[in-house]
Amino acid sequence: MGGALLLALLAAARANETNLTTTSFPDEEKAPLFPTDLFTEEQRRSGAVIFHMIGMGYMFVALAIVCDEFFVPALDVIIERLAIRDDVAGATFMAAGGSAPELFTSIIGVFVSFDDVGIGTIVGSAVFNILFVIGACALFSRTTLTLTWWPLFRDCTFYSISLLVLIYCFRDNEIYWQEALVLFSLYGAYVLFMRWNQPVEKALKKLIYKNKVTRVRSTDQLMPTVSSPAQPRMHLPIGPIIVVMNVLYNYMFMRFYCTVVIQIRDRLEPEEAFHV
């Protein structure tokens, strides 16, 4: 229902778009606006490209330090102050911080290099995060991870809806401002949904598991338990009880032994009888 409503809004936005008749000129390929390199092509082929590799390594190390030393502690403080769950924080604040490089990559791809690298970067990074990152965390984790199906189901549902809307917007290779507003509103709806994430999760799990039968190990667990008023417990001395039981056991055993010996003596002949 929601997807059909979004498609209807997008269709109405395209219908209201005014078609201006302009003179068609051949498409001119725009030159990228990248700054000029410090090294010439011959110098890069001669080994100067190593400096670019060192710069990339420096940026990776700097990004790791910023995330470990500043971003993650700041996220912990935000979670504590706002009293939100870890999965909600990871899907909003952490995801926004982790996707910031993709945002700037898309901006550079649109306004600087004039290519469509941004779409592949955003969609491909989501697939990389879902498949590779989750698998790597499970492989290299030193502790047992307790995972549930709800965060994956929730995020994959919104991700699938966003991809369908994105495909619809790209069907004519153009993006209008109404379509961009719809895409931006979808993310706003996702963040707003996180406000009621926990109640929705409880309601959905209650609906799914309402007829679930719990497996028991014994039929004793199937018997109804009758609640009885609490009786005061009597604390008996265990040591004296064990001593008394031991004396009674020895007494009964000696009685049994003597009885058996007497019966055997009576059945024997007088000359074979013996005294106990």
TrEMBL record:
Residues 54-194 form the Sodium/calcium exchanger membrane region domain. GO terms for cellular component: plasma membrane. GO terms for molecular function: calcium channel activity; calcium, potassium:sodium antiporter activity. The keyword DNA repair does not apply. It holds the Pfam family Na_Ca_ex. Residues 1-15 form the signal peptide. The chain crosses the membrane at residues 48-67, 88-112, 118-140, 152-170, 176-196. InterPro entries: K/Na/Ca-exchanger, NaCa_Exmemb, NCX_ion-bd_dom_sf. GO terms for biological process: intracellular calcium ion homeostasis. Belongs to the Ca(2+):cation antiporter (CaCA) (TC 2.A.19) family. SLC24A subfamily. This is Sodium/calcium exchanger membrane region domain-containing protein. The lineage of its organism: Eukaryota, Metazoa, Ecdysozoa, Arthropoda, Hexapoda.
